[in-house]
Amino acid sequence: MALTRQASFAYIAPLRVGAPVVSHSIFMPKVSAMSRRCELTGVGPMVGHNVSHSNIKTKRRFLPALRTIRIASDALGQAFNLRISNAALRTLDFRGGLDPFLVKASDEDLSPRAQKIKRQIKAKLAAQPAA
Asked: pTM of the prediction?
């Protein structure tokens, strides 16, 4: 009998004494790693070619230069850890910080965490002139 994923039972091999126990099986999905995407600009991996001297092209990925940065919000008085690209860090510096950048940024480019921070900043700025 061949073991396939369509079997109605999961095959469990007998354990040897002292053998390590594996906590996952082939039927459970593995936890995915963090995506290589900037949380502020949405920049992700691009695809291109390695071109050899003999002009042979092989596929490759151009990954964005990401770093985890602790950025302070002036309006909220709080700091956030965000995984952003080096280009986004330069843009933050040019625009004057996290608050002006997020207020002008479109929601399509922002990650869900950055969208939540943007909503908090907008609510705080809207409440300040009224008070």
From this structure: 0.68
Residue 81 lies in a domain: yes
Residue 69 CA to its chain's centroid (Å): 13
pLDDT in tens, 59-113: 999 999 999 999 999 999 999 999 999 999 999 999 999 999 999 999 999 999 9
Residue type, 101: F
Residue 88 belongs to what domain range? 39-126
Q: Are 108 and 124 in contact (CB under 8 A)?
A: no
Q: How many domains does the chain have?
A: 1
Q: Is 85 helix (H, G, I), strand (E, B) or coil?
A: strand
Q: With the CA atoms of 16, 18, 20 and 21 taken in that order, what torsion angle do they form, in degrees rounded to the nearest 10?
A: 70
Number of H helices, E strands in the chain: 3, 4
